TrEMBL record:
Protein's UniProt name: SPAG4 protein
Domain SUN: 1-129
InterPro entries with a match to the protein in the record: Galactose-bd-like_sf (IPR008979), SUN1-5 (IPR045119), SUN_dom (IPR012919)
One GO cellular component term: meiotic nuclear membrane microtubule tethering complex
Length: 139
């Protein structure tokens, strides 16, 4: 994680859909930004602030409405620039006991940069669908 070596998008709002290599029972998401000490300006106002995480039900139901996109919110979080640069947020997947192949990260605001927002690293945590039965009780 080096200053400027990030996924940057224009303005303070943006989104990205992450296609996972396999279907996953989601448990948490981790966001990483650089620290104030690593920043050449001494500030990290380009860090995301308010974030929402969704999963897509597109194509999971079969049926007539299979082409209609439906999303389910798994959590709304605030990335705190005063805390550790790597922050993990638990997801509310208890109501959805199934695995998903796509995760959408929606950044609603940043910490004050009017021109761009930077995301340095996103990690998706969970159990792979084909390993759930054999790894219950393990994380």
């Amino acid at each position: 994680v080096f200053p400027g070596n990030c996924w940057a998008f224009q303005g303070h709002q943006g989104q990205v859909v992450i296609k996972l290599p396999t279907r996953v029972y989601l448990t948490a998401i981790t966001l990483q930004h650089i620290s104030k000490d690593a920043s050449p300006s001494g500030t990290i106002i380009s860090a995301p602030k308010d974030i929402a995480v969704f999963v897509s039900l597109l194509g999971t139901s079969g049926g007539v409405d299979a082409d209609r996109e439906e999303e389910i919110l798994l959590g709304v979080f605030t990335y705190n620039v005063e805390k550790n640069p790597t922050q993990t947020f638990p997801l509310k997947n208890m109501l959805l006991p199934r695995a998903f192949s796509h995760v959408k990260l929606l950044v609603k605001s940043n910490w004050g940069n009017p021109w761009y927002t930077c995301i340095y690293r996103v990690k998706v945590h969970g159990k792979m669908e084909n390993q759930k039965a054999s790894t219950q009780g393990q994380d």
